[in-house]
Predict the structure.
Amino acid sequence: MSSRPPRILARFVAGAPGGFASRVKLRVNPIRCTAHGLCSELLPERVSLDEWGYPVIDGTPISNDLMADARRAANACPTLALFLERVEA
Amino acid sequence: MPATAATTPSAYWYVTRGTGTAALVLLTLSVALGIANVRRTEIEGVPRFVLNSVHRNVSLLAVTFLALHIVTTLLDGFAPISVLDVFLPFKSSYRPIWLGLGVVAFDLMIAITVTSLLRLRLGYEAWRVTHWLAYVSWPLALVHGFGTGTDAKTGWMLAVSGVCVVVVVIAVMLRAIAGWPAHLVARVSAIGAAAVFPIGLVAWLPGGPLGEGWAKRAGTPSYLLARASGAPAASPSSPAAAPAASRSSNGSFTAPATGQVRQAQLARGMTLVDISLAIGNEHLSNLHIRLRGEAIAGGGVEMTTSRVTLGPAANPDEYSGRVTALQGTDIQASLTGPSGSGFTVLARMQIAAGSSTANGTVTATALAGAR
């Protein structure tokens, strides 16, 4: 079964004014994730790893200064399990 | 060695060979790095995401070299390969199978590259399935290199290819056992394929690309292979007496010509036939024909590369092109020059046995409707 991947907002957010950024959160699809751990290397500010190497995400909204790194982390995920999600205000 | 510096093949040909080899090495590296990523290989002091980025960048570099390889092949113009042949396999008149394998490999690489660049939009499954095509593309590219490569017979190219095969076979084996025993049939098949491929290569190469007369068997067009020999011409149609010169207003002319034929042995059984003709009573007085290819026992060459130039003494390269047909010592060439003008040149020569002197007639027909 392949469901549609979650809508990626990183690109959209990148060009948007700063106010937008505070409403974006990092999320992980736990079913897809296979614990490669690249996210924690690229965004240690928000991602730590549990004892089996799976990411534990800090759910606070991504600030502007972290946005580029967050986007990189999401893009680098080998299984596309990590994504940025816009949170309704 | 070539008799003169002017007899070397075009620079594009060297670039084609170099970029083809570089692309093979980069693709090998790309496959190995991709598998290292899947296997979560840890390298001391190198974060995982770096290995991931290097895989991506090496792959893009390989595609870049591949593009150069293809563009310079077209620009070189020796092999009759059209732009369509670059994308549609097995239709070319030049070594259709072996060129075609490279074309399939290229098409697959386009698919892999595009899906990777659009990975976020495509989703994981579509990307992943397409990415597996790399395991098809790589062996096709390698066999294409053996089947068409000018350097395939050389020791250094065999060594490069051998190392590439070893690296990929080991990498594929390691990939197949990572995550054992899920999908067991696929894993065993992969291991089997990785084991059979080098054995097949070793069995095929000696009688194939490394064997005698591969250029011909590989499907090089017969007009590129026709024998241009220093031996006596069996060419009854050649006029015995020097004909009268004639000339028309559009630049076409027929005139007697005399000159020298030299044959030089190059490395690895390759030979170069160099025919330098002086055309009587003409402004375009210098016709220089160079044929390169595998030597034929008893003299001559199975032509695989040619270069023909025509021009006045002050500018002997004014028109240049290549041989389009070859029969005995009759040579036809298509030449282009300044502002799109051009000629079809037919040189009919008699070359006495054991002699290096050529006598004959040169007919140049101006190309109509040149752009």
User: Anything to note?
Assistant: Confidence is low (pLDDT under 50) at residues 10-21 of chain A. The longest strand of chain A covers residues 24-28. Residues 32 and 60 of chain A are 22 Å apart (CA to CA).
